[in-house]
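Onboarding guide, step 5: your first structure request.
Type a short instruction followed by the sequence, for example:

Predict the 3D structure of this protein.
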Amino acid sequence: MENTGYLLVSTRTADGLLLVPYADVRVYNDAGELIFEGKTNRDGYTSEIEVATPAAAESLTPGAEKPYAEVSIFVEKEGFYGAQYIGVPVFENVISVQQTNLQAIPNVVPIPPYFDSVVNESGASRL
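The system replies with structure tokens like these:
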């Protein structure tokens, strides 16, 4: 019988204050296999993602392998820099929540050349 843990991915702005809905999320297990590909909902959360994990009882044996699975999470959203989280632990029978923080790409809009002719000698605009 395979043991299972659960993962929720939350997407927020870099300062953690605002939700980022409908972000693209990919989750890979520690073998590099894609186990989830989808979007966050309007509240910025994925559905529960099932992850195969070692048995929790393995944590009671000294020297045993790690008692959790590790996943890698990749998040993308238009207008934001992508983010990746490597080695995120997921434990058996536990819902792990990984908050991801996305940094907005600044809107760099060049000033059209005709604006130079609109500004008078004092620097005030004639518009």
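Each response can be followed by summary notes, for example: The first strand starts at residue 3 and ends at 13.
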